[in-house]
């Protein structure tokens, strides 16, 4: 297969591979790219974060830093804290992104992450409350793409989960006499992560063929994408399908089955890394 045909007719070029049940990068249709995660090791510019992680999915590289701050709870949610996710796609991560205010893709990704946090109940906002109606934690979760080569959502959810697992919050009490908060930095407790959502994304080719973990090129050539989020109990937390080719019930069930398998792979990886950095 000449490189010329890939440039001139990229879709035909891909179809020749897909007919043989493989892809130009050598992967099978249901195969993920090599996935790695680093947790909490003085990552780049977010050494001040309370929890951090870096995830690589092939060439796609995403970093997540979680910063915890104290604030008063909302009047209508006196017993709850806040979680504020934000996804950034800076111009340095790919030519397609421009510097300036967040573009449509970054905004959609931020909303997707907010929905995953809410639907999966990975963090219960009640757990972030310190004193009812008086004081609560706000978790600012900044997810920055350093290198973009497709499948931003899977990498972002993984980086978020790994970073949250790395967060330790100091003990905070309210002084009865002064009414002021007192922070004990010597006594820190891990953040309670109640569920472990994992995202699995697919690109749809020619309305029928599903390939897992698409690259940027595959996303551009696809007729649609779908992202399935499951937790450790195999529960479906969310299905994200922004338009494109419709999926039959059977195809969707295939995606969910693959997503449950992927969850086990990611959970195993994250547990192994956490074990390796936990003091003996």
From TrEMBL:
<dbReference type="GO" id="GO:0000177">
    <property type="term" value="C:cytoplasmic exosome (RNase complex)"/>
</dbReference>
<dbReference type="InterPro" id="IPR015847">
    <property type="entry name" value="ExoRNase_PH_dom2"/>
</dbReference>
<dbReference type="InterPro" id="IPR033196">
    <property type="entry name" value="Rrp43"/>
</dbReference>
<feature type="domain" description="Exoribonuclease phosphorolytic">
    <location>
        <begin position="31"/>
        <end position="170"/>
    </location>
</feature>
<dbReference type="GO" id="GO:0034476">
    <property type="term" value="P:U5 snRNA 3'-end processing"/>
</dbReference>
<protein>
    <recommendedName>
        <fullName>Exosome complex component RRP43</fullName>
    </recommendedName>
</protein>
<dbReference type="GO" id="GO:0035925">
    <property type="term" value="F:mRNA 3'-UTR AU-rich region binding"/>
</dbReference>
<feature type="domain" description="Exoribonuclease phosphorolytic">
    <location>
        <begin position="197"/>
        <end position="260"/>
    </location>
</feature>
<dbReference type="GO" id="GO:0034475">
    <property type="term" value="P:U4 snRNA 3'-end processing"/>
</dbReference>
<dbReference type="GO" id="GO:0000176">
    <property type="term" value="C:nuclear exosome (RNase complex)"/>
</dbReference>
<dbReference type="GO" id="GO:0034473">
    <property type="term" value="P:U1 snRNA 3'-end processing"/>
</dbReference>
<keyword id="KW-0963">Cytoplasm</keyword>
<dbReference type="GO" id="GO:0071035">
    <property type="term" value="P:nuclear polyadenylation-dependent rRNA catabolic process"/>
</dbReference>
<dbReference type="GO" id="GO:0016075">
    <property type="term" value="P:rRNA catabolic process"/>
</dbReference>
<dbReference type="GO" id="GO:0000467">
    <property type="term" value="P:exonucleolytic trimming to generate mature 3'-end of 5.8S rRNA from tricistronic rRNA transcript (SSU-rRNA, 5.8S rRNA, LSU-rRNA)"/>
</dbReference>
<keyword id="KW-0698">rRNA processing</keyword>
<dbReference type="InterPro" id="IPR050590">
    <property type="entry name" value="Exosome_comp_Rrp42_subfam"/>
</dbReference>
<keyword id="KW-0694">RNA-binding</keyword>
<dbReference type="InterPro" id="IPR036345">
    <property type="entry name" value="ExoRNase_PH_dom2_sf"/>
</dbReference>
<dbReference type="GO" id="GO:0071028">
    <property type="term" value="P:nuclear mRNA surveillance"/>
</dbReference>
<dbReference type="GO" id="GO:0005730">
    <property type="term" value="C:nucleolus"/>
</dbReference>
<dbReference type="InterPro" id="IPR001247">
    <property type="entry name" value="ExoRNase_PH_dom1"/>
</dbReference>
<dbReference type="InterPro" id="IPR020568">
    <property type="entry name" value="Ribosomal_Su5_D2-typ_SF"/>
</dbReference>
<comment type="similarity">
    <text>Belongs to the RNase PH family.</text>
</comment>
<keyword id="KW-0539">Nucleus</keyword>
<dbReference type="Pfam" id="PF01138">
    <property type="entry name" value="RNase_PH"/>
</dbReference>
<dbReference type="GO" id="GO:0071038">
    <property type="term" value="P:TRAMP-dependent tRNA surveillance pathway"/>
</dbReference>
<dbReference type="InterPro" id="IPR027408">
    <property type="entry name" value="PNPase/RNase_PH_dom_sf"/>
</dbReference>
<keyword id="KW-0007">Acetylation</keyword>
<keyword id="KW-0271">Exosome</keyword>
<dbReference type="Pfam" id="PF03725">
    <property type="entry name" value="RNase_PH_C"/>
</dbReference>
């Amino acid at each position: 297969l000449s490189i010329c045909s890939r440039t001139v007719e990229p879709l035909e070029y891909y179809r020749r591979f897909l007919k043989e049940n493989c892809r130009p990068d050598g992967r099978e249709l249901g195969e993920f790219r090599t996935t790695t995660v680093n947790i909490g090791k003085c990552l780049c510019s977010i050494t001040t974060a309370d929890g951090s992680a870096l995830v690589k999915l092939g060439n796609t590289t995403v970093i997540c830093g979680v910063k915890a701050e104290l604030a008063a709870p909302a009047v209508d949610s006196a017993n709850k804290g806040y979680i504020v996710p934000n996804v950034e796609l800076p111009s340095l991560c790919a030519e397609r992104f421009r510097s300036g205010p967040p573009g449509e893709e970054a905004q959609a990704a931020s909303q997707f992450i907010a929905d995953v946090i809410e639907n999966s109940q990975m963090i219960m906002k009640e757990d972030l409350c310190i004193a009812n109606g008086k004081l609560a934690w706000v978790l600012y979760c900044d997810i920055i793409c350093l290198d973009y080569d497709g499948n931003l959502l899977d990498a972002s959810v993984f980086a978020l989960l790994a970073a949250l697992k790395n967060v330790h919050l100091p003990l905070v009490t309210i002084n009865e006499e002064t009414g002021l908060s007192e922070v004990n930095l010597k006594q820190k407790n891990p953040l309670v992560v109640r569920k472990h959502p994992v995202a699995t994304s697919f690109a749809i080719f020619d309305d029928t063929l599903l390939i897992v973990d698409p690259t940027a090129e595959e996303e551009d050539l696809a007729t649609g994408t779908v992202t399935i989020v499951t937790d450790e109990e195999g529960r479906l937390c969310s299905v994200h399908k922004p338009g494109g080719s419709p999926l039959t019930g059977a195809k969707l069930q295939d995606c969910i089955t693959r997503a449950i398998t992927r969850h086990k792979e990611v959970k195993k990886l994250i547990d192994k890394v956490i074990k390796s950095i936990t003091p003996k």
